Amino acid sequence: MAAQEMNTENQKYLPDQEQYQLNPEKVNDQIFDQDGQQQNQKYCETNPMSSVLNQVYHDEDPKLMKRDLVKKRKQQAKKERLISARRLKRLLRKKPVDKVRLAYQAYFFIVSVAVLTLSILSYRDQTVYEGDYKQFLDNMGSYVIDDIQFTYTNKNCKSQFGSEYSSLYEYYWSGTMIGCDCSQGFNFSLLQDQNFVNIEEFFKQSFMLGRVCSQEMLAKGCHNVNEQQPKVFNSWNDGSYGRPFVLCARRKTGISLQTNQSYCESENKTVCGTGDNIFCVPPDMSCPISEIGFTTNSTFKNLQKLNDTNKGNIYDLGKGFYFYYLKNTSNLPVIEFRATESDKVCRRNLNQNISPNRIDYPLMIDRRKQCENTDPLFKLIHSIDEEQFYLSNNVVYLKEKLPYFNIDTKYNWTIHSKTYIPWAPNCRGELFDDVIHEGSTLFFVYVSLRVQLAVTITYFIVIGLIFNIVGTMTACNFAWSCMTTHPDSQYNYIFIIEIAFKIALQIAEIIVICVSFSIIDGKRLVIKDINENNCVSDPVSDYFFTNLESDLTNFAWSYNLANLVIFSVTIILDLIILKHSFNKGHHHGAKKHHEKKEHQELDIGSHGESANLQDVKSDQKLSVKGDVLQTPQ
C-alpha cells in the first residue's frame, strides 16, 4: 500500500501516461542518457510553478521554440560537415595520386578537342550551300514566258495587262542607313583616284555611319543624312535619253523538261525545241519565248510581215529603237532576267555585281562587291550607262539626297537573260526526278551537320572542360565539400556521373552521325550519277554538282566516320577504366578492407573532434526530450 501511494503521489507531477512511456530512462524520478550518465531531476518536480509557467509560455509562442530548435540543428549539422571536411582532407592527404585516372582525363581532353575539330571542319568545309541548290531548283522550276508587252506610263504590269503578267526584270536597291555628315563639303573627287582604304576611312571618320548628329556635332557644322527606303527598279530606256518603258511578261507552267520527243508525242503534247533541247508544253499552249533582244532594224527576222505571235513579235519603242522576241528556236526557253552593274552576273545569281575598281556607297545597307565568279549562262541583252539607268527609274534625286553618292556615266548597267539549265537526254526521266527530290531535302544534311556540331560543342564543354577539371582535381585527391558526409564514396560518385554524361552525349552523337550517314549516302549517290553521266553542260551547274559530291564524300562522310571510330574507342576505354576502378581499388571506398586504417580514423577522429561530436549528440538528445516534455496535455 505504501508503494502504491508513493506511485500515486509521483504521478500527480507527470504530464500524462503516454509521455511517461516515451521516457524509459527515468528511474526513481531521475533521467539518464544512453551512456548511463545521471541527469538532474526534473525541474518541474522541485518547482511545480515553473512547470506551469513553461507550459503557458509554450502555448503562447510555440513557433519561437521550433525556430530555436531548427537553428540549433542547422548549427549542429554545420559543425558535423566541418568535422567531416577536416577528416576527409586528412584522409586524402595520405592517398597517392591516381596516375591512371589522370591519364584517362588527359586522353578525354584530347578526344573532345579532336571531335570538336572534326565537326567544325565538316561544317565549315561545305563549299556548296543550301542557296546553291535552291538556285538550281528555282531555275528548273521556273515558269516559261509566252508573251511580252510594254508600257510607258504604268509600271504595275498586273494592273495594266492582267494577273498573269509581271515585270520582265526587277532590280532591288537595298536603301541606305542614317549618318552624320561632318565632312563640311570636302572635295570627294580628290579621293577618287586613291585606293579604297582612303575612301572607306574617309566615310568612317566623317560620316558616323548609322548615327544621328548630336547637338555638339550640329553646332560644329555637321548635318544628318536621312535614310533612304529600299526601291525596286524595273524600267529601262534606249540609252539615249529616250522615253522609259517597262517590259511585262506573261509566265505560265506546264513545261516538261525531263521527257523526250517520243513521250511528248505519245502524250499528245506540243513538241518544242530541237536536238538535245526538245521539251513539251500542253497542246493548248504555243511554244514559249526562247530569245529576246533590242534592235534598230525594223525588218529584223521579217517579224512585222509575219505578224504571227506563235513565231515572235517586234515593238517600236520610239526613235528607231525596237524590242523583239522569238519562239521555238534551237534554244531552251528564256526564263530568268537580271539587271546589274557591269557586264556579268554573279555565279550566285542573287548577289549584285559592281564594276571593277569601284566600291559601293558606304551608307548602303547591303553593299555590293565585285563577283569573283560569274554565270556564263546569262546572255547580255542590252546596256545603258548609269545615269540613264537612274533616270529611267526616276531616282536621280538620290544624288542630291545622299552626299557623295556617285552617279557616273562611265559605269554601265546591263540586262541579261538565262535559259533553263541544259540537261542531257540520257539523264532525263527517273534520274531527273531524283535530282529534284534530293535537292528539296538537301537542307536535312545541313540541319544534321548543325545538330552534330551543337552536340559536339556540348560534349567539349561538359566532358572536355567541366568534368575533365573535376576528374583531374579528384584524381589529385581534392576534397569536395559536397562529399564530406560520404568521403569513402566521393571518387565513385564523381566518376559515375562523368561516365553517365559521357555515354549519354556519345550516344546522342552516334545517333546524329548515323542519321546523317543515311541522309548523305542517298544524296551523294544521286549526285555521283549526275557527274559520271555528264548530265549538265552548264559550267556553274557542273561546278556545283562536282563540289557537292566532294563535300558530301570527302568532308561530311569522312569526318563523321572518323568521329564514329573515336567514339567506339572511347567506349572500350570506358569499360577498361571501370574494370580498373572496381578491381584494383583505386577509388575511395571500393574495398573497405584495403582502407581499414583510414576508415578507422574517420570513425574515431581526433580527441577534440570526438568531444565536439559527443556534445552535438547530447544537444540533440536534450532537444528531443525538451520537445517531448513541452508537449501540452
Mind sketching the topology for me?
Elements: H1 2-11, H2 17-21, H3 43-46, H4 48-60, H5 62-93, H6 99-124, H7 130-140, E1 144-151, H8 157-161, E2 165-167, E3 171-173, E4 179-181, H9 189-192, H10 196-207, H11 215-219, E5 223-225, E6 231-233, E7 246-252, H12 261-266, E8 270-272, E9 279-281, E10 289-295, H13 303-306, E11 312-316, E12 322-327, E13 334-341, E14 378-385, H14 386-392, H15 398-401, E15 412-419, H16 430-440, H17 443-475, H18 490-532, H19 539-584, H20 596-604, H21 607-629
Antiparallel strand pairs: 1-7, 2-7, 3-6, 4-5, 8-9, 10-12, 11-12, 13-15, 14-15
Helix pairs in contact: 5-21, 6-17, 6-19, 16-18, 17-18, 18-19
Describe what this molecule looks like in 3D.
The chain has 633 residues and is an alpha+beta fold. The protein has 4 domains: 2-56, no CATH class; 99-134 and 433-586, no CATH class; 145-177 and 227-255 and 286-419, no CATH class; 259-285, no CATH class. It is 49% helix and 12% strand. It has helices spanning 2-11, 17-21, 43-46, 48-60, 62-93, 99-124, 130-140, 157-161, 189-192, 196-207, 215-219, 261-266, 303-306, 386-392, 398-401, 430-440, 443-475, 490-532, 539-584, 596-604, 607-629, and strands spanning 144-151, 165-167, 171-173, 179-181, 223-225, 231-233, 246-252, 270-272, 279-281, 289-295, 312-316, 322-327, 334-341, 378-385, 412-419. The strands form 6 sheets. The protein has a 3-stranded antiparallel sheet. A 3-stranded antiparallel sheet has the order 10-12-11, with no helix packed on it. A hairpin with a 6-residue loop joins strand 8 and strand 9 (279-281). Helix 5 runs antiparallel to helix 21 and helix 6 (99-124) packs antiparallel against helix 19. The longest helix has 46 residues, at 539-584. The chain is extended. The chain starts with a helix and ends with a helix. The model is unreliable at 1-46, 585-613, 615-620 and 622-633 (pLDDT under 50).
